[in-house]
Specification:
Elements lengths: L1 H14 L6 H25 L4 H14 L4 H12 L6 H14 L3 H23 L5 H85 L6 H30 L23 H10 L4 E6 L7 H21 L5 E7 L3 E8 L21 H11 L3 E6 L5 E8 L17 H6 L14 H33 L1 E2 L1 H6 L6 H7 L23 E7 L8 E10 L2 E11 L1
Parallel strand pairs: 1-2, 6-7
Antiparallel strand pairs: 2-3, 3-5, 4-5, 7-8, 8-9
Length: 555
């Protein structure tokens, strides 16, 4: 039972897709009553005898139009060609098909097939009273007006609604992305501040630690002075530890965003390659043995490359002071043809003696080398750090001259920026491409339908005039025909005739002579009374005209 209930529920949801709000239910009920009532009324007026079945079928087809728009249009068109009741439903079915059938090929094929069914059933119904050419023309014009025009309007409304929904969704997306960009910009700035704190303050604290360590082994100091220097050194070490904890917190909150390259104003003077000699002198003043050399012809550097070189030397000297105190340090700058190479090396640290022995291990937050690699990546370069064969350490960076001009990045690709976050996820638009208005195709369709209907009207008027001439016998011709003439002679003097204009003329005239067959025409005389036609009749028997009549017949 549960399986049957689930199957029934699924079938109902498929046949009647939602959403079903209160207003939607009221609108659907009113539409069902209106269309069903119209269908029954038209069938009653037409005296077809199928009022109830057509009314019930109209209601069912209307309810299924949302789930099966193409099928409903096909069935409605076939029935509407035979009975007048479903004609109002044909308008609704055309609207639903135009709005809900997405693929243009399927939509066109559905309407063509619907018109064919509409025409075939019309021909089957009226073949005896109207020429097939006239039926086809009338069915085409009627189908274009009752089905195609509503379909074009429905498709325009659906496309416009879809476009508005897409624009609204895009606007919401841009608002969300703008909030994300602001948040990411804050994180970028936090990361930049944290990196500068690590590079600058960490270096200065390392120098303080080196200075105090040198004073601790100075034999000219008293024990009290040496104790005070030791306290100073421990305070510097504690400050370095706290600094790295703070930097680690800031960095962890900003890992989703890479640090931005420093502007040109921040790279000049002390922050660029010109400031490297100052770093070397500061380390020498702290008692470290530091050598410095330059190779190659100096050239102008982009601001980001200039600043990255300074930070690489600063971080390398800081690490050497922390992890290899007392070891000689070699700093080298090499201007290669396409890149600046920065290299800092130091051998293994000598054994510590005296008051410096037993000091705790150097504090390392693990952020320095990560920050250097990110700086180098942003300018299109790279950083290598590792041990040397003599158990020392080597830190080298390769910074291309042109990397910063393109924004930097791995392999020379542009690094991420705010523009990338804004544009990420947006669909690409080809250069010179134009957005097509949803109204354009519908407007072209409406113009095409209008021109077709106008052409059919013109053709219909012309055909009606021609058929009227063919079905009308002039007074002179009628008077010149005599009973007893041969059938071939009489027919040769009469027009071709148009049976659809003389339909019903056989019901209101005098009795037909026994065994005779008759042909009917309109008389040239004007109507004497509204709702009546002047008719003439010629009856033949055995190839001879046996009777001719001129009488009035009700239309």
């Amino acid at each position: 039972m549960n399986a049957i209930a689930r199957a029934c529920t699924k079938a109902v949801r498929t046949a009647l897709p939602g959403p079903w709000g209160p207003w939607a239910v009221v609108r659907e009920v009113l539409s069902v009553l209106l269309l069903g009532g119209f269908a029954v009324l038209l069938e009653v007026v037409g005296s077809t005898g199928f009022a109830v079945p057509v009314g019930i079928g109209t209601v069912l087809l209307f309810l299924l139009r949302r789930a099966f728009p193409a099928s409903v249009l096909l069935v409605t068109a076939a029935v509407a060609g035979w009975a007048p009741g479903p004609l109002p439903l044909l308008v609704v079915a055309g609207w639903a098909a135009g709005a809900r059938v997405r693929r243009v090929g399927v939509l066109v094929a559905t309407f063509v097939a619907s018109w064919v069914l509409f025409t075939v059933t019309g021909v089957l119904k009226d073949a005896g009273s109207m020429s097939p050419k006239a039926i086809i023309a009338i069915s085409l014009g009627g189908f274009l007006i009752t089905a195609v025009l509503p379909a074009l309007w429905g498709r325009y409304r659906a496309q416009r609604r879809a476009l508005l929904d897409a624009l609204r969704e895009r606007n919401d997306q841009l608002v969300r992305e703008r909030v994300m960009v602001v948040h990411q910009a804050r994180l970028r700035e936090r990361h930049r501040i944290a990196q500068d704190m690590h590079d600058s303050l960490g270096h200065q604290l390392a120098l303080i630690s080196v200075h105090s360590g040198a004073l601790e082994v100075d034999r000219t100091l008293t024990d009290r002075q040496r104790e005070a220097v030791g306290v100073l050194r421990q305070a510097a070490v504690a400050a370095m530890r706290e600094l790295r904890e703070v930097v680690g917190v800031l960095h962890d909150e900003s890992t989703a965003v890479p640090p931005a390259p420093t502007s040109a104003g921040a790279s000049g003077g002390r922050g660029g390659v010109d400031g490297i000699e100052g770093l070397v002198e500061s380390s020498r003043a702290a008692g470290a043995e530091v050598s410095f050399r330059k190779e190659g012809e100096r050239c102008a550097l982009p601001a980001a490359v200039d600043h990255a070189a300074y930070r690489i030397v600063q971080e390398a000297l800081t690490n050497a002071h922390k992890h290899a105190p007392g070891a000689p340090i070699a700093v080298a700058l090499r201007y290669e043809p396409d890149a600046l190479v920065v290299e800092v090396t130091n051998p293994r640290a000598p054994e510590l003696v005296g008051a410096r022995a037993g000091v705790g291990q150097a504090v390392s937050g693990g952020q320095g080398l990560t920050g250097l690699r990110e700086r180098a990546r942003l300018v299109g370069g790279m950083v290598h750090a590792g041990a040397t064969p003599d158990q020392g350490f080597r830190l080298a960076g390769m910074l291309p001259y042109e990397g910063a001009a393109d924004g930097g990045g791995d392999g020379g690709e542009a690094g991420p920026g705010i523009e990338d976050w804004v544009l990420e996820g947006l669909p690409a638009v080809e250069d010179g491409g134009r957005r097509r208005s949803p109204a354009l195709g519908c407007a072209v369709g409406v113009v095409g339908v209008g021109l077709t209907v106008l052409g059919l009207l013109v053709w219909g008027l012309w055909a009606f005039v021609q058929a009227s001439d063919s079905a009308t016998v002039k007074k002179d011709a009628y008077d010149g025909i005599r009973v007893g003439q041969s059938e071939s002679d009489v027919l040769g003097r009469l027009p071709r005739g148009a049976s659809w204009l003389t339909d019903g003329f056989d019901k209101g005239g005098p009795p037909v002579p026994e065994g005779a067959h008759c042909v009917y025409f309109q008389a040239e005389d004007s109507k004497e009374k509204f709702g009546e036609d002047n008719a003439v009749r010629f009856c033949f028997k055995d190839g001879v005209l046996v009777d001719k009549e001129h009488y009035r017949v009700k239309e």
